[in-house]
Specification:
The chain has 9 helices and 7 strands. It is α/β, with parallel strands linked by helices. It has 2 domains: 128 residues, Rossmann fold (3-Layer(aba) Sandwich), CATH 3.40.50; 88 residues, Translation Initiation Factor IF3 (2-Layer Sandwich). It is globular and about 50 Å long.
Length: 235
Amino acid sequence: MIDRYPEVKARTWISGYLTEQQLNSWVSACDILVNLRFPSVGESSGTLARAIAAGRCCVVNRTAAYAELPPDAVMHIPISNAVPALADGLSNLIRNPDLRASLGEKALRWARNEWAPETIARSYLDIIAASTEHRPAATTPPQTGVRNFSFPLTAPTLRDDIAERLRGLRGSMIIRLNAASPKEIAAISLQRPNLLQEILPSGWQLHNVAVEAEQLPDEVGLQTGVDLVLQGMFE
């Protein structure tokens, strides 16, 4: 991919495997660390944690666990229309060293407060105490006010199908795009990098993206495919 863009290649260096000490050194020395995850399955990032703890200016997707990071401590890039948003964000950071410094300082302050061993230990104790004080409900009440829709990810009329089903609706919604495997989702994402922008109707606000495994109801643990799950709403 890099070979196709000579100007990018001339400014690119691929390190290969780094030891932990080397990784820490490079992370601490960088001006901007870009850590994008799409689709995300809720995982965290050790590299990102190192960068935040080192007070670096970080750029992340606004999805899954990354959406929970303070907006004044990292630069969030939306999932929809991500490429121009990333280009604009990087251009702004390159031109504005004070903004880079501000994001890095607030990231460091947040890490020292929220990731301090004392804070983490207190959170565990609070969860344990809460679990012993309240008996869990026998069943989880169904979520109200959220509509679920399912579509084949490979359907040639996917955009039209989604627009027709959601016509006239408002409020929180979940759109499940059915795929045969994670590899199929990855392949389609590479073939159509603006997939979500192309298929989501105007007015839809995307809040989160995740990948969930499907299972047959009568077979425990038998995976039959995956869903690309889009959570959002019409206002």
